[in-house]
Design goal:
The chain is an alpha/beta fold. It has helices at residues 2-22, 30-46, 67-79, 97-101, 109-113, 144-148, 151-161, 179-182, 201-213, 234-240, and strands at residues 54-60, 85-89, 123-125, 132-135, 166-170, 189-195, 218-226, 249-254. It has a single domain, classed as Rossmann fold, CATH 3.40.50.300. The chain has an 8-stranded mixed beta sheet with strand order 3-4-2-5-1-6-7-8, sandwiched between helices. α10 (234-240) links the parallel β7 and β8. α2 (30-46) crosses α3. The chain is globular and about 55 Å long. The chain binds adenosine-5'-diphosphate and magnesium ion. Residues 67-68, 91, 94, 96, 170 line the site of magnesium ion.
Length: 259
């Protein structure tokens, strides 16, 4: 009986890993790829074309809404458009990017900001695109918010701007920790991710209130895990429709299982 349970768990883990692999850049379904390319185009159009590097944060109200997936795929899509991209695993509490891209987690951002590691040891190629570099989160620090709001973080971002066109900063959820707000001075704008079958209206409202208070420019909303062929999709327009008042674009990234 116990053996049967273990076998099922192993099978579930393998199926989950396969699904996660299909959610990453080169492995995405055609329609999902197109959605991220549309997101890329609109993000590029919504920021001034002055030749300077742009810093884009990715956040949501709660955990598990698709921030890291969106950050990876936006970074990948930009890199496929001849842009040099740095993807930063800024969620030092629940990092997933290194694992999902098969990269070494340590040393990384936390070690570098604390002055414990040579920056050269912390940046690594993404494995999926030559022009996409990843700064992994490193060891989990006791004080992620302090590190993200430190002068060292500002200096590091400024230094990176010289060598890339875009910096994508994957952040923790707003209603859990303040990390996404403490970087408001270094981001040019924020992408707000909403999981269609999961996000609570009150949680989204509260998170957006915080961003508005911190005067963060919201570049757009990404609705994840949608079934765009489904008629029920249209109801999300009504459910979240009022957020258009932020003057932002609204995209949906379909479930990778669909094509
Ligand atoms: N557009 C999407 N369609 C279907 N599943 C998605 C989508 N975006 C993310 N996911 C899945 O949702 C789960 C949580 O995603 P993740 O990006 O890690 O969320 P977060 O970083 O917000 O915690 C993962 O299993 C991921 O594969
Ligand atoms: Mg994440």
């Amino acid at each position: 009986m116990a053996l049967f349970g273990k076998k099922k768990r192993d099978k579930d883990t393998i199926l989950f890993q396969k699904k996660e692999e299909r959610m990453i850049g080169p492995n995405l379904s055609f329609s999902a790829k197109e959605s991220y390319n549309l997101l890329r185009t609109n993000i590029m159009l919504s920021l001034p074309n002055n030749g300077k590097c742009k810093v884009i944060g990715v956040t949501s109200a709660d955990a598990g809404e698709g921030k890291s997936t969106t950050a990876i795929n936006l970074a990948y899509s930009l890199s496929q458009n001849d842009k040099k991209v740095l993807l930063i695993e800024g969620d030092m509490r629940k990092p997933t990017i290194a694992t999902r891209l098969g990269l070494r987690q340590k040393p990384g951002l936390s070690n570098m900001l604390a002055g414990l590691s040579d920056p050269a040891a912390c940046f690594r190629n993404s494995n999926i695109s030559q022009s996409m570099t990843v700064l992994t989160s490193g060891d989990t620090p006791p004080n992620p918010s302090e590190l993200l709001s430190s002068d060292e973080m500002v200096k590091m971002i400024e230094a990176c701007k010289d060598s890339v066109d875009y910096i994508i900063l994957d952040l923790p959820p707003l209603n859990v920790v303040p990390d996404a707000l403490v970087v408001s001075n270094i981001v040019d704008g924020m992408i707000f991710v909403v999981r269609s079958d999961f996000a609570r209206k009150a949680a989204v409202t509260e998170a957006l209130r915080q961003l508005e208070f911190a005067k963060v420019k919201i570049l757009g909303f990404v609705l994840t895990n949608t079934n765009i062929s489904s008629k029920s999709y249209s109801r999300y327009g009504g459910k979240y429709g009022k957020y258009y008042k932020y003057g932002s674009h609204y995209y949906s990234t379909p479930n990778a299982e669909e094509d």
